[in-house]
Description:
- The protein is 47% helix and 12% strand.
- It is α/β, with parallel strands linked by helices.
- Helix 8 (196-201) links the parallel strand 7 (187-190) and strand 8.
Amino acid sequence: MKMKEICGVGAAMITPFKPNGECDMEALGHMLNYVIDGGTDYIVALGTTAETPTLSPDEKSHILDFTRECVAGRKPIVVGAGGNDTAKVIRQINSMNLDGVSAILSVTPYYNKPSQDGLYLHYKAVAESSPLPIILYNVPGRTGVNMTAETTCRLAADCPNIVAVKEASGKIDQIDQIIKNCPKDFVVLSGDDGMTVDVMRKGGDGVISVAVNAFPKRFSHVVYLAKQGLFDRAAEAYEPLHEAVCALFEQGNPTGVKAALAIMGHINNTLRLPLVPATDLLNKKLEKLIREYELC
Length: 296
């Protein structure tokens, strides 16, 4: 049976910062309620969108504790824990307070560019050591290595504790291979907002989304329709969001989504270096699209 807690739309949460760069927990609480009230199916804490590389261990721990307290059982929680040192990833997972967490989202090792056998052995070791199910996260545009469909399917078949993949390769043929060749209970999630309907049309189970931070009701409705098998209606519902979703990623993530959220009055538009806020040109574009398509 598929792990239903991670089907549908998961919100890849941002980390709001105060103008002085400190974590803004009040704004994070507002954002969690905003996406939950907007219809998201589960919360993903401490992923890429959270600017996790710039967070200290204490900040990560505090954010996870706060998220658990704020969500208060209303939605499942997934937490990000990955890296390019297998032993360190295992220690990280085993040192976390995982009470109330449903699964671990773990990105492929970045920078050192392991082979497919290296990826397989990395995830096998992590899965065997983890007390929670593992969601693979393939995002070659950030990590420099693409985990092939064959490697994903091998892990899904060999490791019972690996239950899903967030696929952000942008390769629909690769995703289709995973859907067709992995065990039937394996969950396949889009890692690209714009590909969500196409992935679900092929048999995928949902998306871990950045855009749902900004447009939770509209984006969650798209995924709801796709979950019902109403793919043409889902595509039609997505159409007014398309330009704005593309704009969110023009200058990287979470630069665009933080700009949109600031325009709508939800957060301060503060990022931690080396990321910087969106340009005036992108801000004006987002303002226009939000107004034109009534996305507030």
